[in-house]
Amino acid sequence: MRTGISVREDALTRSRWIAYFLVALLLGPAATLGQSAEFLQAYDRYSEMIAEGRYQEAIPVAAGIIELGESELGPSHPNLAAMLNNLAGLHDALGHATEAEPLYQRALAIQENALGLEHPDVATNLENYAALFRATGRSAEAAEMDARAKAIRMKQPKDI
């Protein structure tokens, strides 16, 4: 179990990630338009595993999707960043902070370069990354990420 968070916070984190993956399943097809049949089959297999709660088994499938995404989209495409963020979230939800952090870093770098420093997707990645920092006791770094994400969110138009 992770250190630095209570059992309640850990349960909330798990619930948040389950909700996050369900949203990813719903939004996934939009991100896969124009992809190869191999990519789509792998994505379907990954989605099925996540829906069934087979997170550990989904890791190598997600890594394969990233490899396909890199070859089909290129190493700096925003959809690749979303795939990296999903895999980072999967590792994070399973308590694999060491594996999650470089994935969050790479996804953030791609998003900042491709979408700009104030894009809502950048804020989402910053929030996810901050949660990892909090879970690993790195509260100062988490606070920096949260502050950046909040600043981005404050600049976004408000829904009516």
Q: Your description of this structure?
A:
- The chain is mainly α.
- It has a single domain (about 10-155), classed as Tetratricopeptide repeat domain (Serine Threonine Protein Phosphatase 5, Tetratricopeptide repeat, Alpha Horseshoe).
- About 80% of the residues lie in helices and about 0% in strands.
- It has 7 helices and no strands.
* CATH homologous superfamily heading: Tetratricopeptide repeat domain
Number of strands: 0
Provide the low-confidence segments as ranges: 1-9
The span between the termini is 41 Å
Number of domains: 1
The shape, in one word, is globular
What is the average per-residue confidence, as pLDDT, rounded to a whole number? 83
Order of helices and strands: HHHHHHH
The CATH class is: Mainly Alpha
Quickly give the CATH architecture.
Alpha Horseshoe
Global structural class: mainly alpha
Instruction: Name the helicity range.
Output: over 70%
Q: Please report the number of helical segments.
A: 7
Instruction: Provide the gyration radius in Å.
Output: 15 Å
Strand content: under 5%
| Sheet having the most strands | none
